Amino acid sequence: MLGQPAPTAPNRVWVGDITYLPQQGGSWLYLVVWLDRCSRKIVGWDVRETMPEDLVSEALRRALAVRRPPAGLVVHSDQGSQYSATRFKDLVAQHGTQQSMSRCGNCYDNAHAESLWSRFKAELFDGGSFPSLAEAKLGKLPPYCLLQCRAPTFCPRLLSS
């Protein structure tokens, strides 16, 4: 996607990526986001203590339910196993979206999604960690994205309404 013209309207191209978040005690949380390439807003997310196949699917399912994009939406990601899983591909096809994946060995293809993480981690953690998964889901993550990313659809309370 790097080098492609930017979409001129929201809900035309979403880019997704997974990052690791430190948790107290030395373990990790796994956060996936779907980011609208035009508005740069987080349109869907999920965070868990493991990285199962459906981590990215659940975040995309939430985003599709809230945003209701037109047919032809492009969802772009790297070539991670979660994005190449049959269930994920079925979800993409079921909603009339098109899947796009980074070229093999070209980490810059997903730069639009990856660029979120450095700012996100610097501003949110400053060397810290989450005490628990519950704190991540209901604590710092939603307010950070509401204030810093200006993405109200990131908040789980808004996603469920």
UniProtKB/TrEMBL annotation:
Q: Name one Pfam family in it.
A: rve
In this protein, which residues make up the domain named Integrase catalytic?
6-161
Q: InterPro entries in the record, alphabetically?
A: Integrase_cat-core, RNaseH-like_sf, RNaseH_sf, Transpos_IS3, Transposase_IS3/IS150/IS904
Name of the molecule in the record: IS3 family transposase
The organism encoding this protein is Hymenobacter defluvii
